[in-house]
Queue: 4 jobs
Job 1
Amino acid sequence: MASEFRVTLRSPDLSVGVATAMKAVFLRDVKTAFRQPQDLLNPLLFFVMVVTLFPLGVSPEVSFLQQAGSGILWVAALLSVLLSLDHLYRHDFDDGTLEQLVLQPQPLFLLVLAKSLAHWVLTGLPLVLLTPVLGVMVHLEGNSVAVLCLTLLIGTPVLSLIGSIGAALTLGLRSAGVLLSLLIIPLYIPVLIFGTGTVMAASEGAPVAGQLALMGAFLVLALTLAPFASAAALRISLSNS
Amino acid sequence: MWQIFHKLGSPKWFFGIASTLMPWLLWAGVAMLAVGIGWGLAFAPQDYLQGNSYRIIFIHVPSAFLAQSVYIMMAVAGLVTLVWRMKLADVFVKSVAPVGAVLTFLALFTGAVWGKPTWGTWWIWDARLTSMLILLFLYFGVIALGAAISDEKSSARAVAVLVLVGVVNIPIIKYSVEWWNTLHQPATFKLTEKPSMPPEMWVPLLLSVLGLYLIFGWLACLRMQTEILAREGRTRWVKELVQAQGN
Amino acid sequence: MAFDSFGAFMVMGGHGPYVWACYFVFFLLMGATTLWSLRQRRFVIAQQRRRMDAAPVRDSTPAGASFTRIDPSRD
């Protein structure tokens, strides 16, 4: 029975178009994620808790929080995306869906792109939506909060895309979580620098269009290159297991 | 041309070439490094701004230079691993990554110690030091991933992908760190950038850079030979070699 | 010679500790890396010899009932 299934999947006529396949992968990821809402909620809770630590651990003074607020929120968002990356391929890897995905006639990097986008919609986007609330809690001004949301909106998809490479590379390894952070954090640094730098410039009243455009360039670069690396890494990890 | 390429990929052929090259690399490297450092330490004139502390340059710059180019070399080897599946390229990456990490650490350490008399503190979040620190993290990632995957082929290709992703990121990291640095502390004076350096300073510097390159070449050959011996233990030529070496 | 005496050379105008610490650590770590690499090589050679000594017979026996590991193709 399994072989029959494979035959239909491998039939070379691309009766299922690329766009349809991407949409199917995307919707499937979103739907299955909502069946386990706790997994969706955990990164958000983590985000809120990390932000809470800073006023408690460093100082609740308005002047400090205003200065450090954007950095705190960015670091917390980065860490919670990092935390959620382990789930990106794990379930599909365990139940064999990933192998079927690799065998599809559609190019793998596009399916990986769909998966990364689904990951962003499930983790990055909720973080952005939560940011105004936390921004008020760390005493950021209205303008800074808006720019912060904008940088997170552009920056978190980059985090998901780069993260998918790391998740694919560490798939099926022991202690994958720590290794994943070790591989990915250095690659996140440019996004973090520009994310917080833009907000700081905005709070000083400087124009930020240039920095935002540059972050957009990061996003375009990640969109075009990361799926290829991620797809290659997936094939390697699957041949390993 | 292709024949040379295939030969290059053969561990046995490489092993022979490396054995003949190694003494030359080692002794030329040691001699050049010794001349460069001796000249730099004792004979080069004092710097008018930084006094004698600038003499750290004769090891700081070679380490930093080599640390960066080793990563680039690893990326080239990674590309070769992915495209041509050449075993030797992966042997190179695996053998050289720890050496690259040591060199990066040395560049960081000497930079920090140099910072003490120059800036008054051990560590400054200077653009160069910070990007060196990130480079060290990248090296750690490569070493950790290589160690975590037990299957030789998968490990080779996974590490190659990681190194390539890293090398795409290095210019972005450098650029963003430099931008970040101007944002936070404008116009600190840089350790190594000089408007003009007299030849009594840059000639010994050049010598020590070249010397360290050659010594690195020797170390790379040595470590690659070890890796080949460990991997190709089942082939006849390694068995014969091991028998001959041990007696 | 940039220095008048050996003492001046060691002191380096007050910067001696920094300069010499750097050079010390540089040679220490490079030396350690070299020694480690040489030891590793010796270790690998010894290991291969031990393996050859342990199983010299099996290499020469004709393959009667040998089991070959097959990697099933995944597609």
Note: Confidence is low (pLDDT under 50) at residues 57-64 of chain C.
Job 2
Amino acid sequence: MSTKATPAVLLEKCSKWYGQVIGINDISLAIDGGVTGILGPNGAGKSTLFKLLMGRLKPSSGNVRLFGVDPWVSTSPYRRVGYVAETEKLYDWMTGHDFVSTLARLHGMTREEASERASHVLDFVGLGDVENKEIGKYSKGMRQRIKIAHALVHDPDLIILDEPLHGCDPIARTSIMSVIRDLGSQGKTVLVSSHILDEIERITEQIVILHNGRLLALGNLHAIRDLLDKHPHRILIRTENPRKLAEYFVTEDPVYGVRFAGEEALEVLTNDLSAAHNVLPRVIVDSGLKVTSIENPDDNLEALLRYLVGGAS
Amino acid sequence: MDKQGRGLAETVWTRLDRKAGAITELTIRQLRHRLSTWVVLAVGTLLLMSLLAMFIAGVRGGWEPIDNDGDSHDWDQDGYPAGQEFKYGSDPYDGFSFPGSGFFVQEGSFEWGSVGLYSGNHTWRYATGIFTYTWLDDSQIGGEEIIEVGSLKSCPEGELFEDFWIDWGDGCRMDVNRIAVHEASFVGNGTFRVQEGFYAEWGHFEDTFYVEPEPASNYIDEDDIDWTGDPNGINGFDDDGDCLRIGWPEDTEPDFWWGWDARHQPDRNGNGIPCDVAWISDSSGNIIQINPDDNVDEDPSEESLAYEDAHRAFIIGTGKIAFVMILGIFLPLFLSLGLVRDETENGTLHYLLSKPIHRGEFITYRILGYLIISGGFVLIMSLLMGLVTASLGPGDSIFRLNDMILWFGIAFATILALAAYGAIFNTLGLLSSRYGVYIALVIGVYEFVMAVLTLGGATLIPVLSVSHWTLQLIDSIVLIVWPNTIEMHLIATAFDLPSGIRAFWNPPVHTLGTDNPFISGLISVVVLLLITTMMILFGQAQFKRREIM
């Protein structure tokens, strides 16, 4: 494992421009241990950050270090790194086991070692039963998992996953999330990027938020969420009789107002989202009304960013 | 790092070796899964198989003896082969002139440009006009200006040379007993009216006697090469006597200007010995020049020379054109251009480069993988060609082992070319994924042209090409495997024999003045390896600096 002196990931005043376009802008960051979510909308600089870490790109200014080594110059840190790229292309003609063991051999393993490790990681990501099927016949979720498997085959200390949940169905999503949580609990450093707050929330508390190439926030997601929760929020409840339900809500403390959004929907306005959610079940039971859905339209990354950007200005 | 419990025997090298193995294997498997690979290999196989089929058909068809000096042919169709006519001093191109035909005695002629008539039973020569006859000899056949009476066509309506025209030496029938002729000869009794502005003469042949026509086969392979193996001894023997001309009839020197006999020189090479062949060797005993006297050893038996020449020409020609110029250029165009480029474009490069492998190594192993596929194909094909030519080729031995060695030499040279082109095209694909293919096509055409120039014997301009050095390497290997090829080349030139070796093989030129094929071969190998290495290094330098999105 890495020592405290050399964190797994270190960026010092790092910037990357593509001509006039900014990829990331003056980011300093040190990450070591645990699962860290890299959050940001599309184009925030998540992939640029990862490509800098994987030596694909050369920083325009500043330094990038993986385990204390500049990845643009040396490939040696990759012995301890597993990278799940955003790319969707795979060698469709290969079987899953083939794919993972071939890439394992690039770590200097013998054929036997590689085959053994491949079977092991394929089991770990839940592809053990389809390892001899051609990748071309895999589902979207399986394809994402095979990409994770190849990144884990050499038992790396740092795992970087670029949008691993992108395009997966809910079942695949859940199983990939549990794989990522398992890795974190094994004491590895995991970086996982996403543009969906909810996904990251289910994986980790430790987050880095990127916006327009800048590091917007860094720290515990709940702490950031709490800040956000203290700001006006909407809860959208779909019910058969919104007017009647509104009567029950207006008397509640965290609620400062209600609004009717169409025939069968009620918007509850609050300044304390968690408190509002605490009273929500009781109020609905008391009302005896049938509720078809409850949504938090403001509880997403865009709202969080809006809040953070707004707060900064 | 020793998590997999690797033994102490493990070194950096064994791990490097495993990475190399993995990338190379991946490359091979990728190429195997591409349709274009199979298409180009299938086309290559088809090409070589059709060449092999031609070769086998040639062997099965056997070898017709070749009349190298052309004297077995009866040019004027008077029934006597040219060789026999030379011997008797008659004109081999004149159907009236043949052994025993005697001499034409001219009795009269129309003056040029005059108009007139003449009657009688004569031999009419160089006649242009209209002949009205009571008898026409239809036994004369062919010859350049003898009209074939039996097969004369009817003349078109109108006046000769006004309304219609007749070919030189030809005629046409105007009526049952009337013909029109143009510069033609015939025998007949009647009245000739000369065409205004033309000519005719008449007369008869004297001193005719009968000579038995010899079979044409007497004049095929009648004068073999008599080489004692000692340049200082007397070499060359006039087997058919057409140089020494002992016992030939007197006064056989014909007066026609095109007869080669008129310029016959029994000691053309000026060594004081008539009718011999001077074989000139250098200080180390290698034949460097061959100077024959006229008509000596001019029609050698095909058994000894032409079969071997044709056989070698097939191997060298196939090796140079099919292997180097076609497979050597097309396989890399199809297989090597996308070695790294396609991975970059597909995004699959990310999987490979996230492993602890240097980009430079990656290029090298990719090229290695491509070389195993393309080189393996070339090797298998050369083995196949070798087995067939070595089994069916001329000579006493059951299996021509040297053929096999030469085929492996051709495969070796082709593989070096594949490596050089592979490195060049791969680098082009890296430099520009969009235009690389066009530049590669231009280079392919350029290399082909340089190869053609090299085949034609150019030694200076093609130096700036891969194909030149590859072809010279084959020339060198040919000379190493068959040292007497140079002698066959000289013989073919000296006796003006039709030779495939002359068409496909040139003595290697870049020998640093030593004429040693090992030196030229070595230089070629070094140049080819240098080009390959430089291009790989250039590609690596480009790739290392590249940012991959």
Note: Chain A has two domains: 9-223, 233-297.
Job 3
Amino acid sequence: MSEGNGQEEMGSIRFPAEILSVVAPDLSLKRHLDLGLRPCLRKFHEFKNLTLNVKSGLSRYDGDVDGESVTDSPVLGSSVIKSGNTTVICGITGGIVEIANVSTTTTSDDHDDSMEYTSIYPVVEISRGKLNGAPTDEEMILSQQLYETLLHSKILPKKSLIIDNIALKTNDDTNNNNNNRKRYAFVLYANIQVFSREGPLFDYCYGSLVKSLQTVKLPFIHFTDEEFIINDNRKNGGNVKPEIICDSEAYNQLKINEENINWSLTFGLVNNDDGKETIILCDLEGHAEETCCKSLINVIIDKNLKMRYLNIVGGDENVIIDENIVLKTVQLAKNRVNNILN
Amino acid sequence: MNVQDRRRLLGPANASPIVFSDVKEKKSKKIQAKPDDEISKMFINTGLVKNCDGSAYIEVGNTIIQVSIYGPRPIRGSFIDKAILSTECRFLPYLSQPNDSISRLTSSTSLITNYNGKLNLSNIEQKISSYIESCFLSCIYLENYPKSSIDIFIKILSVDTNLLNLVNDVVHCCSLAMVDAQIESKDLITSGNLRYLKSNNHIIMDPKCKDKDKDITNEVVEEGKLDLVVSFMNSRNDEIVGFWCEGNDTLEDDVLEKLIERCNDMSKEIRKNINFYLIESLE
Amino acid sequence: MSSGGSDELIYEAKLSVLNRVDGSAQLSISSRKDLDEGELGIICSITGPIESKARQESPQQSNLEISVMPHIGVASTREKLLEYKLKLVLDRVIDSFEYPRQLIQIVLQILNKPNYEDDTTIGSDDMNDFFSLNDLNGCLISTYLALIDSGISMKSSFLSSCCIINSNNQLTTDFNKNDLINSKSAHLIVYDLRNGKCNNLIYSESIGEFDEQIFFKNVLDKCKKEIENLNTKVIKNCITEKFKNDYIWKA
């Protein structure tokens, strides 16, 4: 900039690319697109690299080869997803709930299958340097979306969570065949931690949830008799006196509907003003792309490359969403899912 | 859960927690024999988390710690002449925390089904937070950052050791993150941790064993035992910035001196490693 | 109250039902086939543009604050997600640059839900609760009406409709809870309107297993027809009626 000589014209200010993308995201996006690039320097149809790890060592049974090295972690299944800088860690834990006695007999009823699926209760935590513990809107929305999507995907049958055979740990086997004994089922919870929040978070969270679910193992169950005490300390704690106890080693693999395993992908749509053509951007990343791409398409595709969910948001009035562009996006998604799941 | 939390999906309120029977000892671990005078290996990495000012990641055995530092960042409100330092240590909600039974005895929510529902810091988390905070308070040039705050977030992703040993690793992780955040400090803090068995006058350096609950509640006092973490600024005349001792026996002056000496040795050893890592990462 | 609708659904709508807010509307949607089912009833109120809190203010455009209240109990994450989806549509439709630094508050109260059993145990696994397409549909239409009532500037008119493909591969807009649960796929479609005709697709959500071809041919056509029907038979009357009432003292 020139020294102030009164009438002199203003010099232009130059910003480095990453600052421009915050100050004027729309400009940053447009300039990159004009060059045939994106602000994240990927090509339009280029996905971020993705690494999946299901043997993360977080789960109880992770180090398990033949029942030899079970840890005392309560995590029944876990996975870690890394994409670009973003890391998503998902751990699934469980609880036990008493259920009504009737439910399995209703298979003859034409109330068909969808009632027979359930979901996981997820809580997403995105680390972004906030002190108080209240979840942000984004975290709440993600959690709810995960719950609904998994439910509608029909991956987790209710039946798989019902506990059929409980071994009775008492000496007298007399009341073993008691018909009106209570019935129990597992409920599953997921805790999802997000580090370096960037890009299509729902896709990563959903991916990590489904991948973790595939690794879930449910422990064997015993009833406890009166004398059975888990831990000396619980006596002092007073109120822990479980009726049911899980075997520390024996487990079953959770049965899930493998056919319905699916994967979510989100695309951004932008219209560069010089052409009428709409550009599809894969895996939005960075401030410029995330704030300026208001038109989005979210597709969930299953293993057999069938569409399971489609969400189109036409947030940008310059982008006209027609059959052509959606089909193109779906095709991109199918190719990608084929790579990831098969 | 008495009050249903409407901002989280916590599942049915009538669910009860999964309780596992104790893992049989012989199977629970392939006992990795580490000589008592050796420091266990660690994996360290910095700058992994991008949306903060400095971060570090440490893996020691099965213990995994991640620290993010946000700051110095501007604060709202009135003028202050030096930075506010705050520390928050959180375990992943489903982890069982070391000395858990003690905090369980004192906390009102003793029966949590869904770990995700846990909101406040537990006693253990609070203790670790305040230890780290007091160490770094005396180390950072807070007066260089008026009108600002520096927030340290510690996430324990996995834990497989006793409390004080964990604290030891947390200190190192925070120091590395501090360097990554380029916050002006007097020195880099490292610390040493050891266990002193009084009966046979034996010192275990960097004890990795997990404490059984009964060790802490003193139901069975088998032997006099002391755990010690001492944090130093080794390049500043070995000044002590933190000291934490837990145990079930008394500590005499001469023994204490000896223990601090050993902690210092260990701290220096770790400092060398961290220095090496930092120099390497510059290249 | 104007009512009317397509072959399958009856809509009833009324504007200016609340007099202390800037715009309001009440809407009910019920099945023509099965009148015992009950109706989906929603009331929407809009306050704005009003002064916004400093924290929410954006320098060049207005901000939206949307809250959805369930018909029983208090709002939870489910409503948060509904609010988020509503915002995606409304951000496109409301002419937010017209009201810089202002706030527009939209509150939706769900009054009735069709065929809702009164078991309200918290955390119950009622599938109806997890198909929110119906609610979203009602919320969108009633918000549109309330926006017109409030006189807030919009870039375009918009309306929505939802339909399902049932197990016999039939496409229908008239469905109850069980139909929904047993459907192959469920779709919500939002179009903007130009000259009473559907113009551009502005939002869609489809759950379940379906084919792209079917989506573009059958689903979109069906919903377009439903939307245009709704517009000519209900919405227009409703708006005409409102303006008649507004100018009741003229002449």
Note: The beta strands of chain C are 2-5, 9-15, 23-31, 39-51, 63-69, 102-112, 157-165, 171-172, 185-194, 197-210.
Job 4
Amino acid sequence: MSEKKFSKKHEWVSLEGDIATVGITKHATEMLGDIVFVEVPDAGKSLEKEGQAAVVESTKAASDVYSPISGEVTEGNKAIADDPGSVNGDPEGASWFFKLKIKDKGELDSLMSKDEYEKFCKENPN
Amino acid sequence: MGVQKTALYDLHKSLGAKFVPFAGYEMPIQYKDGIVKEHISTRTHAGFFDVSHMGQFFLEGDETLVDALEKIIPSDLKSLKINHSKYSFLLNDSGGIIDDLIVTKTNKGFSIILNAACKENDIKHISKFLGKTHKYFLNNDLSLIALQGPKSVEILEKLIPGVSELKFMSGNNFSYESESLYITRSGYTGEDGFEISISNKKVKNLIDFLMKNEVKPIGLGARDTLRLEAGLCLYGHDLNEKINPVEANLKWAIAKKRKEVGGFNGWSKIKDLLTNGSEKIRVGIKPEGKVIARENTKIFSSNGEEIGFVTSGTFGPSVNRPVAMGYIKSEFSEIGTSIQLEVRGKKYEGKVSELPFYKKSYVK
């Protein structure tokens, strides 16, 4: 898998061939608190870069998850929909949200590296 | 008026609290452990809540005071014994709920705990009904700490002997570090527990003792999930000035004698509703699956007719499912009725449910 890239909306994406895996960052889960509901997109759904893709709810509030890249969903992670609390445990690993077949690898260029993302989070604590 | 802070603000900060503005105060919504752990530790051990933003309102006066208060509070205050408390409301002319409150008979008159967001307005309203001989004041020198959970009694008894003898919804004066403090056995979580009225000077010492006994600090977030599991209303969400106690399914809180004799604001309206029923009523709601139906979620009948709306909804950590409350047309209010909840444009199945979702263990 490629190195992770990060969005300003606190999603991460990693690439294997033309299949991207997308999830939310550790920083996002820390801001959200205890996650109690997750809705992931079904396979076949077409997603636009920065378009609404999934829903995550904590005890406090509901938030949208956006796709950091365009493509067609190949799989939503049913395991996190069944056990939303698991997202707090391993958000950047087993608790990915969806995989999609991407159209344009070039879209990744506008995303941040891990270092850039960490700096972004420090500068934008909320 | 700027943002207000309670006497424990610095302590909350040192405990890693995340703050939110609430009713003009900076209040902790959660600490490091997070809402779910705070919720569970309250249910299994004990937690403390800084609720010093709430109004501690005192009334003093002769026997005419009770007549004045009974015009706006539908409790049987005349029969209320000293140190006994009742859950009740302030009512407007049409029977709408201006605030919900706990009123306690004291040896000088009454004390009332008011919601933080309502307290200034409440006092204006109450004062209109008082006579010249009646004294009233909001005591801002006092903090209010709720200690809630099954271990509360064992822990507080060690510090303040005698509290274990209090029955639910009663209180007394106790002495602590050469000060008098007032403790009631009550709360807002569905657990056994106490509310401790203590001077701003001494409150830190009390908290130090509680924390040495592994009582965790609990924020407003878990306070909300705990009260919702317990089926308790939150003013400004489940209750407001346009809702009356019959609609709110709180007619039990109007004294039997007062229902018959009346003599309080909005009685003619309330009397009519008690006889004929109300058009809508507050119910518990269990969404199917994991979807959370939050405030303002529209409720539909199984035929697709819009029949109500959600006023509070969250995930209940102890019942391990989403729970909600809302108002629904009375003909759909029977427990077990199938309903649909519109969340993000999609309809999800749900059922009208009994309240509370979580069974309480008060000491009677």
Note: The mean pLDDT of chain B is 96.
